[in-house]
Amino acid sequence: MTQPRWLRNVRPYGSTAKDLLIENGLFKQHRPASTAVLTATDIDGQNQLLTPALVESHIHLDKTLWGQPWRANSAGPTLKDYIANERRVLREVDAPIAQRAGALLENCIARGSLTMRCHVDIDPEFGLRHVEAMQQLRESYRDLIDLQLVVFPQTGLISRPGTAELMREAMALGVENVGGLDPCGIDNDPIAQLDFVFKLASEFERGVDIHLHDKGELGLWQIARIADYTERFGCQGRVMISHAYCLGMLPWSQVKPVAERLAALNISLMSSAPADCAVPPFLALREAGVNVCLGSDGIRDAWSPMGNGDMLERAMLLAFRFDLNKDDELAAAFEAATVNGARALGCEGYGVEIGQPADFLLMPVQTLGEAVVSRPVRQVYRGGELIASGGQLLDSRL
Ligand SMILES: [Zn+2]
């Protein structure tokens, strides 16, 4: 039990100024902003924008080289070249996962992400090593961030003997989601991969999150099959398709019927809003009722030297990619980095409403749109306590 305290003079989502009472880590009540003198326990909101904490819906912490000496990207041109190159890099790097992933995780928390989904590599070479390291890391930061994992067959599932057995072992260890990867492009056996993924998820009552880079009609066909499996196994609300570039490559008339199935089955899409390829059409999908969220994907790793773990910057990149200029459109980009992610990840208790956990950001800007455009310095609160300010975590565990 903690003493109730007032968060004074804040503007939830950019509305008029309010005070909110925080008790035992939850928002308990609100009132119009009082002009009374601050007490010793009050948090002075200084008329800042109040928003829920950010949601990182797709990251690969176990692969990152964050905090390591700069390493030039030496990968060849194809997806398979990148996969082979990454195996080499991960074999050579000396720093343990706890150090690399821990440093990036702290950076993400300091920038305001308090909910996160992390894909974790599994293959016969590394076995369960990455999964076990990430589960330990999660325990070390459990009081600061809600971190869920996806077991990710980076080097293939059906086409890589031994991987399926390891994925089953990872489920038994408590990993929350079954991952997949290009059922056609990587495994060349889409039905076998989807069959395995959905049966495993169903058996352990877990979520599904499939990386889909396959392009054009081949990709769209696989999305329709993922919808079939979601329906057949009753996985509505627990399935995500990551990237789904194909949705941005085909005419909307062809995409629309599939989008309507995604909406009806509550299948979410994740985009990193990349610059180098087609991106699912954000506003049209939103209009069709599809939940689209955002993720950083790889940060400073063998895939990409880019990224900084700031989900407000990711929202800006989405807005930039689609030329979102209107305030309501910018607010939609903000939602993709917050509430849409919370929905996709199945979070219970999210938002700056009464009864929800007091996990929030304070930013010196007027509106959600201004927050996306300016990516201001921010204060990060967890359960009503300040945990980061000015991009620095107050209690580093490194
Ligand atoms: Zn990824």
CATH domain class name of the largest domain: Alpha Beta
Q: CATH superfamily of the largest domain, called what?
A: Metal-dependent hydrolases
Q: In DSSP terms, counting alpha (H) and pi (I) runs of 4 or more, how many helices?
A: 12
Spatial arrangement of strands, main beta sheet: 3-2-1-4-13-14-15-16
> What is the residue-averaged pLDDT?
96
Number of strands: 16
Number of individual domains:
2
Class computed from helices, strands and strand pairing: alpha/beta
Strand content: 15-25%
Bound molecules: zinc ion
Principal-axis shape equals globular
CATH topology of the largest domain: TIM Barrel
Q: How would you sum up this structure, described in words?
A:
- It is a single chain.
- The chain is built from twelve helices and 16 strands.
- By secondary structure, the chain is of the alpha/beta class.
- The chain has two domains: 5-52 and 351-390, Urease, subunit C, domain 1; 54-344, Alpha-Beta Barrel (TIM Barrel), CATH 3.20.20.140.
- Helix 5 (190-204) runs parallel beside helix 6, helix 6 (216-232) runs parallel beside helix 7 and helix 9 (311-321) crosses helix 10.
- It starts with a strand and ends in a 5-residue tail after the last strand.
- The mean pLDDT is 96.
- Zinc ion is lined by residues 58, 60, 119, 211, 242, 297.
